[in-house]
């Protein structure tokens, strides 16, 4: 009789213990999920609205320095057939001018430096990318725009300087002397493929210190800053602007989450100045 009662007592204890473990697991899982959601909302500014006044100021004072770079690829198929293709383009920003020659900062990884017939077309902020339905062909349309010259590049920075000549007047933006600090407001100015030209988004610097960012093979790891201004395909090479309308960084890419771009990655202004100093000393 005592053995039966003891067995039943032990069984009840195990059942209660298992129930308690299950409840604790549910509570811990819920707390972890809540912590993750709170971190995601805070860290990526999901609930923060775009800074309308900041965007308006960028559109007034900085957008005229925004450049679209189209890569032209020519392939000889046969003796009588040559194929010319035009990329969707990447972004760039004017930082210097010498008479009618403009100098543009952009991301190196979008420039086909290994191509023997590299050709880049420059479209200013007010010039449209070709669309089907225009009353001229693509080649004829793009022939009216200036071609770029590759002035300098360095894989250690993932940056390139290209230049072009134009009679048009474009804005030249200065480069900030100080690296943007955590929580500083910034605006990303670029030409994403799936949005309108001259797209401007706002956010904040999220990194306390430079973080490593590079290719998947791990060969090129760049010390960059992270921010929450939304980017998309085509934003690479575009400027990160501070509230003084200075170039605080050049966007190189972004972290992705379920196909969506989250934290933007930008080469900060202090390293851009180092890159340009290397260019002057070459």
Task: Give the secondary structure arrangement, pairings included.
Blueprint: H1 2-44, H2 52-61, E1 66-78, E2 81-86, E3 90-98, E4 101-107, E5 119-123, H3 138-142, E6 149-154, E7 159-165, E8 185-190, E9 199-204, E10 211-214, E11 221-227, E12 239-241, E13 247-257, E14 260-268, H4 269-280
Antiparallel strand pairs: 1-2, 1-3, 1-5, 3-4, 4-7, 6-7, 8-9, 8-12, 10-11, 11-14, 12-13, 13-14
CATH architecture heading of the largest domain: Beta Barrel
The count of helical stretches stands at 4
Which word captures the global form? Answer: globular
Main sheet characteristics: 7 strands, antiparallel
The number of distinct structural domains comes to 2
> Into which percentage range does the β-strand content fall?
35-45%
Cα(first) to Cα(last) distance is: 96 Å
**CATH C-level name of the largest domain:** Mainly Beta
Report what the structure shows:
- The protein is of the alpha+beta class and 282 residues long.
- The protein has two domains: 117 residues, Thrombin, subunit H (Beta Barrel); 102 residues, Trypsin-like serine proteases (Thrombin, subunit H).
- The protein has four helices and 14 strands.
- The strands form two sheets. Strands 1, 2, 3, 4, 5, 6 and 7 form a seven-stranded antiparallel β-sheet that branches. The protein has a seven-stranded antiparallel β-sheet with strand order 9-8-12-13-14-11-10.
- Strand 12 and strand 13 form a beta hairpin.
- The longest helix has 43 residues.
- The protein is globular and about 85 Å long.
- It starts with a helix and ends with a helix.
């Amino acid at each position: 009789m005592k053995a039966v009662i003891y067995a039943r007592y032990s069984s009840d204890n195990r059942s209660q213990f298992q129930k308690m473990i299950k409840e604790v697991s549910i509570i811990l899982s819920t707390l972890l999920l809540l912590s993750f959601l709170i971190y995601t909302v805070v860290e990526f500014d999901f609930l923060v609205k775009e800074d309308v006044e900041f965007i308006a100021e960028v559109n007034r004072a900085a957008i005229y320095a925004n450049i679209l770079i189209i890569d032209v690829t020519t392939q000889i198929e046969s003796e009588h057939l040559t194929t010319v293709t035009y990329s969707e383009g990447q972004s760039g920003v004017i930082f210097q001018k010498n008479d009618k020659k403009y100098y543009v900062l952009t991301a190196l990884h979008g420039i086909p430096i290994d191509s023997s017939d590299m050709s880049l077309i420059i479209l200013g902020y007010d010039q449209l990318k070709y669309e089907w339905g225009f009353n001229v062909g693509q080649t004829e349309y793009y022939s009216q725009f200036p071609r770029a010259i590759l002035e300098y590049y360095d894989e250690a920075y993932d940056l390139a300087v290209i230049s072009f000549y134009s009679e048009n007047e474009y804005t030249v933006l200065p480069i900030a002397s100080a690296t943007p600090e955590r929580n500083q407001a910034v605006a990303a100015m670029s030409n994403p493929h799936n949005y309108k030209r001259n797209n401007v988004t706002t956010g904040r610097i999220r990194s306390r210190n430079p973080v490593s960012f590079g290719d998947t093979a791990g060969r090129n790891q760049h010390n960059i800053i992270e921010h929450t201004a939304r980017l998309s395909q085509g934003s690479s090479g575009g400027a990160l602007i501070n509230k003084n309308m200075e170039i605080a960084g050049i966007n190189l890419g972004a972290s992705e989450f379920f196909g969506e771009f989250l934290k933007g990655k930008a080469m900060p202004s202090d390293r851009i100045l180092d890159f340009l100093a290397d260019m002057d000393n070459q």
